[in-house]
Batch of 2 targets.
Target 1
Amino acid sequence: MSDLAQRLADVDLRIGEAARAVGRDAGELTRIVVTKFHPASLVRELHALGVRDVGENRQQELSAKSAETADLVDLSWHFIGQAQTNKARQIRRAAHAVHSVDRDRLVDALDAAAEPGDPVLDVLVQINLTQDAGRGGVEPAGIEQLAERIVAAPTLRLRGVMAVAPLEEAPAAAFERLAGYAARVRAVAPDATWISAGMTADFAEAIACGATHLRIGSAITGPRPPRA
Ligand SMILES: *Cc1c(COP(=O)(O)O)cnc(C)c1O
């Protein structure tokens, strides 16, 4: 077995254990492999190993790698990084889901970027779990307003919430709050059931708090190469 296959199998085993430990079924979890800074060839290797959900946090890398792997028609690309409104068209063309929607202007830009015949775009409300308002994500007080704006956008479909655990806090405590915010979003859109949370360091805690979509990079891909 290749190192990559081994790491993928190890992570999937740990996901299964973490789910079982809290009485959840690992089959209801989507494991997104974050391939940022790695070449498109890695995406191909992952696909050959059965991976179908991949994530990128920069628009240029998302656009380049999704174009290079366009023949892998069953791949789903998840955009998980800060999105610039002037890149909405490129993001929309490349991504199947955008996890990082955190402001009205981005909702409007993604909606306006739809072209006739485009599929509806799955989007998540990214929530800032830190005390630092400068970090990505909407402040909790703004959750309902942003969710309602997404629901009103005809070419977008609100699927749930996304967050990154703060560095300065135990992830379990932060993900507990996220579960409460997810319920507030479901009060606006009952089928917005996704909770995108959990990375290499904290996916077990995220699973315990109800995460449905895990974004795992380095534990599977190995150390990231230096940014080009
Ligand atoms: C890079 C990244 C991840 C994956 O991080 P790892 O610690 O390598 O698992 C998850 N979410 C976001 C938003 C990221 O930018």
Target 2
Amino acid sequence: MTEKLSHEEIEAKKRTFDENYKKVLYNIGDAAVKSGRRIEDIRLLAATKTVDVSVINHAIESGIKLIGENRVQEYLSKKDELLPCEFHFIGRLQTNKVKYLIGNAVMIQSVDTIKLAQEIGRLSVKNNTNTDILLEVNIGKEESKAGFMPEEIMEKSHEISEIEGIRLRGIMAIPPVCEDGGEKNREYFRKIHKLFVDMQAQKLDNSIIDTMSVGMSDDYAEAILEGSNMVRIGSALFGKRIYF
Ligand SMILES: *Cc1c(COP(=O)(O)O)cnc(C)c1O
């Protein structure tokens, strides 16, 4: 849940964002150039869970164009107050909550079952819209994490790309937690990048495979160096979270 903050605390959080945002942009630009790209080639998604709406709006006014929430309830509590921005859903999603996202989420990044993809498609068609999706891959094969297994993702992407109402855009992953920054995770990032390239090579119908959404606060530079083109950053922008 979003924390309840005093006016002073909110102002302090805005200043924290301002300082952090500069550093994050610098690091993204640096990693982009080192990987033979430009900063414009990398999309920054601000992961805004637990962040107060007024701080999110300050971030949007400062240049953030894309935000991600990972709980439907929390998103709905903020939605009406948010300034215009592109919204992606990035958390675990039950099929009975898909209805709240259709028409609001430009992209649902955390599709981890065929059933979920079908429900997103069904409700999108019903609402005369299209929803972009990413397939989440459980790259570390962790029991605690959602996502398709790496070895099944190609087959599933074929099946999913044929569902009406959705457009498959690529792959998303949350690699295992590493203590020493992102260096150890580079091997996972390389594996995810290989899956992304293989997915692109399949020439799937109704799909534009252009998004590899990998890299969070502790490892976004390494993720970019290994080919990521969308990083999802929370605490490195907004400061440490008290709740999850
Ligand atoms: C919270 C969250 C992030 C951002 O995490 P940080 O470590 O704070 O950058 C990214 N992706 C997902 C799916 C998240 O839930």
